Amino acid sequence: MSKNKLIIATAGAGKTTFLIREALRIKDGNILIMTYTEANEAEIKKKLFNESPDHKIPNNITIQTWFTFLLKHGVKPYQGAYNNYLFDKEIKGLSFSEGKSGLRYFNARGFPVYWGEEENFRKFYFSSDFKIYSDKLSKFVIACNENTKGEIIDRLSRIYSYILIDEMQDLAGYDLEIIKLLFKSNIQTLLVGDPRQVIYLTHHESKHTPYRDGRMKEFINDKCPRLCDIDEETLKYSHRNNKEICDFSSKLYPNLPLSEPCKCDECRREKSEHEGVYLINRCQIKDYLVTFNPTILKPKNSVAPEWNFGKSKGLTFKRVLIFPTGTIIQYLKDGRLTKRIKGKEEKAFDIAKFYVAITRPQFSAAIVCDYDKSEKFIDGIKKWQSS
Amino acid sequence: MHISKVTIQGFKCFRRRFELLLNDGLNIIVGNNEAGKSTILEAIHLTLSGLYNGRYLRNELSEYLFNKVIIENFKTDSTVPPEIVIELYFEGDGLAIFEGDFNSERAKNCGIQLKIALDERDRDLYNDYISDNDENVSLPIEYYELTWTTFAREVITAKNLPFKAALIDSSSNRYQNGSDIYLSHIIRNYLDTNQINGLLQAHRRLQKTFSKEKVVEEVNKLIEERTKQTDGDKVIKVDVDLSSKNAWEYNMLACVEDVPFQHIGKGYQAILKTKLALEHQKATEANIIMIEEPENHLSHSKLNQLLNDINEKCEKAKKQIIISTHNSFVANKLGLDKLILLNNKKTIRLNDLSEETIKFFRTISGYDTLRLILCNSAILCEGDSDELIVQKCYFKKHKKLPIQSGIEVISVGLSFKRYIEIALKLDKKIAVVTDNDKKSEILIEKYKTYNDDKDCPIKVFFDTDDNYSTLEPQLVKHNRWNLINQIVDAKYKKDGANYKKGEYKCNNEDELLIYMENHKTDCAIKFFDTEIEFEFPAYIEEAINYVEE
Predict the structure, then answer these.
(1) Long-range contacts of B118-127 (CB under 8 A, 24+ apart)
(2) Chain B nearest-CA residue for A90
(3) B-chain residues near A185 (CB < 8 A)
(4) What ipTM does this complex have?
(5) Chain segment B459-501, per-residue pLDDT in tens
(6) Are B398 and B458 contained in the same domain?
(7) What is the pTM of this model?
(8) Do B534 and B389 fall within a single domain?
(9) Record: contact A76-B106, CB cut-off 8 A
(10) For residue B345, is it within any domain?
């Protein structure tokens, strides 16, 4: 038994609830709960509020996003240890970068050239308005920790006795180095996540590339054996999705164990006539919205109360209406998860985001797609007809 | 949990970085006027509460907070905008969140920093201002900001500090709208969240009943009629001020037996505030109590009582208390080992005095230890008569009293040893004037360690002629006996061996000596007041020369 634990969960298995109950059980020390997105941070706060006996977030529990944590406890206390220049500079926050940050110029052939840490740490780590690039944050923290001979982790271990991380699958690159340091410290670390739901690949560093895409389990087995227990049983049943959705979503990850719906009475108390995965034509949207009142999920540019696929992670809806990308529609037709690009086998579409979208509802997911009556789609999709 | 160190730079009288180490428990700061004692207390309180003179300093920045010399220099050279930095270093468990390298030592430390500096976002405006005004510029305080951070560069609010500060002084400039903001802060620290919210709600209910009072309704109706000329006009009425969350603090008065707090005596105010602050008990918070010159407005017995309270609580409740004082009684009573002497922006502590000496002064607290501590140099003598003769001798030489040159003449009875122990710690020039009591051989041996050591600042002066063992015979020795007789102007009456006041004069040297022995103080006053020139014993003149060197 190790003091640290990784729990592999399936979508809708109640990992956040599990995490919160774990936190509420602990009375003897400060607890830091972390997650990747602000939406999930808010979700954790809400659930914690509901789960705690007196509807108060206990004083010994702090909830933060991973980035806030890195900035607050990793960068700021010893930023002067990186170098003297940074000692009294105020880092103005985070600069979230979609792609690799620190672009220097495009070369003659149109390829981007990036700043290196050695040649210009200022432009490597920081935007022009002195925000630190989110994809390099953990690298910076590791550098400061080394320069202070471990002071950052030591300080942290005297503040928090427990660190609980939700959505661990989004951690990559130097994040994993930080996880390793946490494993080795006095802190008891619990990681929970679903390797299928890797939405925020914000690391473009070459550090630990084999363990991208949610391969925390493999990282632990290879790089920190015996430092952390791995539990794949506790959270393998989905309390949210029904069998049809579980089966359909499992097809997206043929190499991972199948998701299974939880069969307890509690989970299956509510029944609906309209369950499963449906296709609807664009002209049926209005009709469908009126009939079922689903939550709308879009790949991007959603306007509240709609959700982007990625942002909806961790949330539960009764029904959803998904606006797919072209590549997702292609998959629905041919069932191919990969395609060959320049001789390499690449993902045919953003599998993780689609997985997140399709696993949000309790009852039904409808996908908008204009089709002919004769057109064939992969198994598990029903064509919706208004009554 | 306590403050282990304070640094102040650029704030008021502290131009260069000033550092003060503090003990857990009691600390007594002594120093002359203008030495910066109050400024230290203000700086600590400001950095723990954000308050300065009862107001949130963030909104009240002014040039006057800065050191005068810095501001003067700034007028001629404005290239570097001046800054104020105050730091508090913490020690204790559960404070790791305050750890980081963001401090003036640029190393791992635990604490907080308050900084008043140019807002970097206004750097352009500042530069424009400086280039537009070549000479004699005043500090453009409007481009300044106050930042309040942990050593981990985290912004602080007073709420999330585990230290609660109480500043107790009896000067009157801390009052706002009649209520004493410091008192309300002490009360606030004493209460838990539910109690504060309860007060807030009760205050709000008060407003409701107020506006429903018949007379208030009538008044409001009247105002409405007068002001509401057209339908579009808005309604004006009188009400209780609830505009801020802290409104109750301003509207509420502490009363002592129905007398509003600010109307009770200053001394009693100080006692009450100190007691309230001392009672503060929250396990997760440390309490820092700062008391400015508790001797002000207090009678001797009240002061004694207050000091007993402070001593007791400090031991029991593990509080950190910082006191500034001018008063020897306060210093002796609370323990000379707790003294921090502030002189020329430097500090000296009396940390390792012997147990006996500390106990001696604590028990017999009347001794003027602070006179010794605060003077430039001192002459210690046995009794009042010796003191007067030394004063007179100095006056004869300089036509002024020694105190006017910072030289104290202190009558210490037989406790030379205790004073010398303090003086050694201070490395202060001290002349001891003593009688030889017919044992000059023994004295020479006894004081060899001082008198033979060139580097020792303490020298003992006495006459080696055992025939003239005390001051009185010494005076007779150095002058004609009938000159002395003329000065003391003896009027006595023989009654066995005793001489009582009467009309007879001394007829010879022996009679004079017996008279003088029995009327030491009377004679000393005569010597001090006389217009007649007389010679002083050589060892007294030597002692004066020594402390003047």
Answers:
(1) B118/B81, B118/B83, B118/B143, B118/B144, B118/B145, B119/B143, B119/B144, B119/B145, B120/A90, B126/B81
(2) B153
(3) none
(4) 0.81
(5) 999 999 898 888 888 998 889 888 998 898 877 776 666 666 6
(6) yes
(7) 0.81
(8) yes
(9) no
(10) no
Asked if residue A39 lies in contact with residue A311, where contact means CB atoms within 8 angstroms, the answer is yes
Provide the domain count of chain B: 3
Task: For residue B165, tell me if it sits in a domain.
Answer: no
Tell me whether strands A162-165 and A31-35 are parallel, antiparallel or unpaired.
Answer: parallel
Of B107, B129, B160, the residue at which a domain comes to its end is B160
Query: pLDDT (tens digit, 9 = 90+) per residue, B2-20?
Result: 999 999 999 999 999 999 9
Nearest to B96 among A81, A87, A159 (CB): A159
* Angle formed by the axes of helices A174-184 and A216-223, nearest 10°: 60
Co-location of B499 and B538 in the same domain? yes
Summarize the confidence of residues B365-372 as an average pLDDT. 84
From B100, B106, B120, residue closest to A77, measured CB to CB: B100
Q: How crowded is residue B513: how many other Cβ atoms within 10 Å of its Cβ? A: 19
Same domain as B286, residue B188 = yes
- Residue A245 tokens read as 């959705």
Q: Is residue B335 part of a domain?
A: no
Q: Which among B97, B106, B108 has the least Cβ separation from residue A159?
A: B97
Please identify, among B160, B195, B229, the residue that sits at the C-terminal boundary of a domain.
Answer: B160
3-state secondary structure of A160: coil
Query: Is B363 domain-assigned?
Result: no
Q: What residues in A contact B96, CB-CB < 8 Å?
A: 155-156, 158-159
The dihedral through the CA atoms of B502, B504, B510, B513 has a sign that is: positive
Query: Which phi and psi angles does A229 have, rounded to 5°?
Result: -80, 150
- Which residues have C-beta within 8 Å of that of residue A30, sequence separation ≥ 6? A60, A61, A62, A159, A160, A161, A162
Q: What distances in angstroms separate CA B65 from CA B35, B293, B437, one per listed residue? A: 16, 22, 58
Q: Are residues B142 and B195 in the same domain?
A: no
Query: What are the residue ranges in chain A where pLDDT is below 70?
Result: 200-205, 387
Whether A158 and chain B come into contact, CB under 8 Å, resolves to yes
Q: What are the strands of the beta sheet with A276-280, ordered from one edge?
A: A307-308, A295-298, A317-322, A361-368, A276-280, A381-383
Give yes or no: residues B393 and B252 share one domain.
Answer: no
- Give the tokens for residue B312: 């007791």
Report the C-alpha gap between B392 and B538 in whole angstroms: 14
Q: Which residues of A touch B100 (CB under 8 A)?
A: 76-78, 155
Q: Which residues does B516 contact at the CB level (< 8 Å), separation at least 6?
A: B472, B475, B476, B484, B488, B523
B505: left (phi over 0), alpha (psi -120 to 50) or beta: beta
Residue B195 burial (CB count, 10 A): 12
Q: What is the dihedral of CA A368, A373, A379, A383, to 10 degrees?
A: 50
Question: CA angle, corner B323, sides to B317 and B329, nearest 5?
Answer: 105
B177 band by pLDDT with thresholds 50, 70 and 90: very low
Handedness of CA A292, A298, A301, A302 (dihedral sign): positive
Which residue of chain B has the CA closest to A145?
A: B100
Same domain, B152 and B6: yes
| pLDDT single digits (tens) B251-264 | 666 777 777 777 77
Reference B153, options A86, A294, A154, A223; nearest CA is: A86
Do B286 and B400 reside in the same domain of the chain?
no
Which structural domain, as residue segments, surrounds residue B537? 375-548
Side chain identity at residue B432, one-letter code = V
The answer to whether A77 faces chain B, any CB pair under 8 Å, is yes
